[in-house]
């Protein structure tokens, strides 16, 4: 129950973090020759408040609470997380770790799309929310979420890398100062690899699986669906890639982020990843 409450209270922070990590910052100059300013966490927070108000800060609240409750129920002895990060809940054992990855992948997709969607979701209209958050192919075949190029691979990679860190406990018991130095070094090395994966997971989670159909064909069909309660609001974070030109996988996503926006984008809010690793060592 405490874990669920913490996740609910962290919804505004998590919503800003997700929008910040997906905000576009192309290196190419715009038509007038100027270079757009790089987004900042505070800047995104101000934009959310200005354009969407309190409703924007609480987006993703319902799926976050449901996901936190389900995670607590299934993994009661796991360490709680203070925000809904792209990293899955770490558990001992391969079967439970794989199950945690599969569950977390679906939760990340649901929560992150609920945060970024320009439509207001009616918490009392689950059917409409499903139509907004998931493609027709994903609604018909929910396992298609696991076939989003690169997403499951990235989440599995994070889980595998996080599983290496507890091995440090077998390294003996050196002096306190030396031990703390080693812990910081291990956390930094882990951050170098895991932080980009968390940014990549955040972006891939927003890509819908249309089952091989083109985005334009799907748009013609789904735009005609009645969405009476949903109302659009100004988008806070511009999509980095349009849905008719998606990332093709984990490696492709990383390469295109570096080529189009620069490698620092892969380390947005990297210190959160560092703290998450360090506190587990």
UniProtKB/TrEMBL annotation:
Subcellular localization: Membrane
Organism: Mycena rosella (Pink bonnet)
Annotated TM spans: 56-77, 97-115, 143-161, 181-201
Main localization, broad class: membrane
Protein name: Mitochondrial carrier
Endpoints of the signal sequence: 1-15
GO CC annotation terms, alphabetical: membrane
Matches recorded under InterPro entries: MCP_dom_sf
Entry keyword set: Membrane, Signal, Transmembrane, Transmembrane helix
Superkingdom assignment: Eukaryota
């Amino acid at each position: 129950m405490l874990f669920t409450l913490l996740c609910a209270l962290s919804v505004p922070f998590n919503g800003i973090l997700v929008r910040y990590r997906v905000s576009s910052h192309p290196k190419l100059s715009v038509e007038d020759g100027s270079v757009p300013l790089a987004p900042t966490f505070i800047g995104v927070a101000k934009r959310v408040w200005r354009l969407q108000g309190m409703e924007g800060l609480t987006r993703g609240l319902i799926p976050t609470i449901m996901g936190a409750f389900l995670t607590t129920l299934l993994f009661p002895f796991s360490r709680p997380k203070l925000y809904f990060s792209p990293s899955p809940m770490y558990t001992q054992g391969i079967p439970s770790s794989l199950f945690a990855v599969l569950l977390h992948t679906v939760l990340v997709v649901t929560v992150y799309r609920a945060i970024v969607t320009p439509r207001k979701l009616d918490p009392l209209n689950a059917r409409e929310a499903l139509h907004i958050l998931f493609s027709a192919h994903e609604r018909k075949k929910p396992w298609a979420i696991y076939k989003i190029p690169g997403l499951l691979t990235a989440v599995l990679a994070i889980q595998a890398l996080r599983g290496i860190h507890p091995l440090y406990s077998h390294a003996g018991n050196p002096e306190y100062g030396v031990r703390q130095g080693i812990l910081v070094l291990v956390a930094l090395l882990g951050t170098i690899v895991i932080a980009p994966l968390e940014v990549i997971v955040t972006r891939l989670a927003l890509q819908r699986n249309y089952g091989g159909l083109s985005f334009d064909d799907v748009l013609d069909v789904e735009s005609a669906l009645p969405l009476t309660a949903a109302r659009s609001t100004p988008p806070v974070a511009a999509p980095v890639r349009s849905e008719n030109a998606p990332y093709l996988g984990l490696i492709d996503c990383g390469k295109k982020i570096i080529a189009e926006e620069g490698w620092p984008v892969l380390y947005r809010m990297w210190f959160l990843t560092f703290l998450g690793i360090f506190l587990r060592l």
